[in-house]
Specification:
By secondary structure, the chain is an alpha+beta fold. The protein has helices at residues 31-35, 40-46, 79-88, 93-101, 160-165, 170-174, 225-232; strands at 2-8, 11-18, 21-24, 55-56, 61-63, 70-75, 106-111, 116-117, 132-133, 136-142, 148-156, 158-159, 180-188, 199-206, 209-217, 242-245, 263-268, 272-277. The chain contains seven helices and 18 strands.
Length: 279
């Protein structure tokens, strides 16, 4: 079962998707409130709007599945990411090596809801950067009680030259307008395939051709989702819940940078495909 937000002529609505059909929930129901229940699937079924007819999944306009949740991210959780960070920042390579093997992970605030874009909305690269890449990541949907209640797709767009110049510039390399996309659907935890079998695939199309493609599996991730959430919750609280991007294992070659007009597709087993053009 999956949850989502869609845009309709009469306003945005929370829906759940089951067996290829979309069921609208009652007006004023928020996604965060459904996720913050003991059994989100049962809650969603109970909150079906009896006035709205179900429809087949097709050409709906999906929004980012976010209400008031902050979006956080983890870094250097795959060996490929560790190597890439070491190569881009020679002077600080030791720190990326240490965080890869340390008990404490790298965690940072990626976006507020206002900075997030949804499916088919444009992501951006910084005008003061020359080396920009998408980072396709499994994203944990976490309740206020720090339970992993679902999974979605996230794109942690990053300016590698800015971070490479000095790791202290990480917030500028990571956090800016339209630097994060999320969606289109949240697959509830009970409906997700076994995580080690989940594949993440990135395809970047340029001028109608494939400019880059790559894939990895969650079996390559050095940390568990549960441990990342445990660290995120230390000395912190998230009254509306939180989304946590879990790091990337797919890094384009050093001579590749996103350009205006590119189309970025991220597909994750059990969830779907998140597509965004580059502004």
């Amino acid at each position: 079962m999956q949850l989502a937000k869609i845009r309709r002529a009469d306003g945005d609505v929370v829906v759940f998707i089951e067996k290829g059909h979309i069921f609208a929930l009652k007006p004023n129901v928020t996604l965060a409130s459904v996720l913050d229940t003991k059994n989100p699937a049962e809650t969603a079924h109970r909150l079906i709007d009896p006035i709205v007819t179900s429809e087949r999944l097709g050409q709906q306009t999906f929004l980012a599945p976010v209400d008031r949740q902050e979006i956080w991210a983890a870094g250097v959780t795959y060996k490929r990411s560790k190597v890439a960070r070491e190569e881009e920042s020679k002077g600080a390579a030791q720190f990326y090596d240490k965080v890869y093997t340390a008990a404490r992970p790298e965690l940072f605030l990626k976006a507020t809801p206002e900075r997030v874009v949804g499916p088919n909305q444009p992501i951006r690269v910084r005008a003061d950067s020359k080396w920009n890449v998408p980072e396709p990541e499994l994203t944990l949907v976490v309740s206020p009680s720090l339970r992993i209640v679902g999974y979605t797709i996230g794109n942690d767009v990053s300016s590698r030259d800015i971070e490479g110049e000095n790791p202290l510039y990480l917030p500028q390399a990571k956090v800016y307008k339209q630097s994060c996309s999320v969606g289109p659907l949240i697959t509830l935890a009970d409906s997700m395939p076994p995580l080690p079998e989940v594949e993440i695939r990135l395809v970047i199309r340029r001028g109608g051709k494939i400019g880059f493609e790559g894939s990895t599996t969650l079996a390559q991730m050095a940390r568990t989702p549960e441990s990342l959430v445990e660290w995120l919750g230390k000395e912190n609280e998230f009254p509306h819940g939180v989304l946590l991007l879990t790091g990337t294992g797919i890094v384009p070659p050093d001579d590749f940078s996103l350009s205006s007009g590119d189309i970025v597709d991220i597909t994750i087993t059990g969830i779907g495909t998140l597509t965004n053009p580059v502004a």
